[in-house]
Amino acid sequence: MRDFYEAFYNRAARSRVHAEFCERVYGNNLCQHGFTNMSQLCALIDALQLRPDQRVLDLGCGSGMIAEFISDCTGAYVTGLDYIPEAIYQARERTRHKSDRLAFVVGDINDLDLPACHYDAVISLDTFYFSDNYTRAIRKLSQTLRPGGRLGIFYSYGREPWVPIEQFHAETLPPECTPLADALIANNLSFHTVDFTSDDYLLAQIRQQVLTDLRPRFEAESLMFIYDNRMGDAVGIAQAIEEGLHKRYLYLVQH
Question: Are 50 and 74 in contact (CB under 8 A)?
Answer without folding.
Answer: yes
